[in-house]
Amino acid sequence: MSQHSRPLYTDSNSTQTLRQGLEEYYALNPNITDPKELPPDFAKILLAHDVSHIIYGCDTSMYDELKILPLTWWTSNYKLRDHLRTLRDPTISPAIKVMYDDLVKEHGVIWLYTSILFVLPQLLPELISIWLKSRQRQRFVPFLEFEPLLDRSLLEIRQEFELLPFIQ
């Protein structure tokens, strides 16, 4: 895959399995902490976040990193209240720090906050659109209980949970 090619899992019609997409994600992002190397207490939340990248077709650009959390809150069974609870849980909150540290290690603190300031105005219209499209949802993607989806195709998962309108 060339440096400028998009990962296969980001294609809205990808027939890769979730497991294959996750393998591609880790292969393309060797600087990301592998949850298998962490204590199981909070490794699961990291893995669930990585799985969300695959299900929602998001890469690791700052745009997609900022997009994935609200997209997850509005279309999965992991809501803002769950995220706030996670941030306060002393056994799980270190997982959030690991994700932050990975970004800082790869790019630096100045890059991180400068990127957020530049990307957020571009992302805001899409976040509003996602929020409006997600208001009447009946089916929610399982966030922490994703294992039954691992051997299903991404297209099938995206169709079942009506995610195609959110994947560009």
Structure description:
Helices cover 57% and strands 0% of the residues. The protein is built from seven helices and no strands. Helix 2 (40-55) packs across helix 5 and helix 3 packs parallel to helix 6 (109-133). The longest helix has 25 residues, at 109-133. 24% of the residues are buried. The mean pLDDT is 90.
Short descriptors:
168 residues, mainly alpha
Brief summary of the model shown:
This protein has 168 residues and is mostly helical. It is built from 7 helices and no strands.
Blueprint (SSEs and pairs):
Elements: H1 18-28, H2 40-55, H3 62-75, H4 80-88, H5 94-107, H6 109-133, H7 154-160
Helix pairs in contact: 1-2, 2-5, 3-6, 5-6
First and last CA, distance: 20 Å
Instruction: Tell me which oligomeric state these chains represent.
Output: single chain
Mean pLDDT: 90
Residue share in β-strands: under 5%
| Number of helices, counting only DSSP H or I runs of 4 residues or more | 7
Global shape: globular
The structural class is mainly alpha
- Computed CA radius of gyration, to the nearest angstrom: 15 Å
Count the beta strands: 0
User: In which range does the helix fraction lie?
Assistant: 55-70%
Ranges where pLDDT stays below 50 over 5 or more residues in a row are: none
Q: Describe the biggest sheet? A: none
Question: Helix and strand string, N-terminal first?
Answer: HHHHHHH
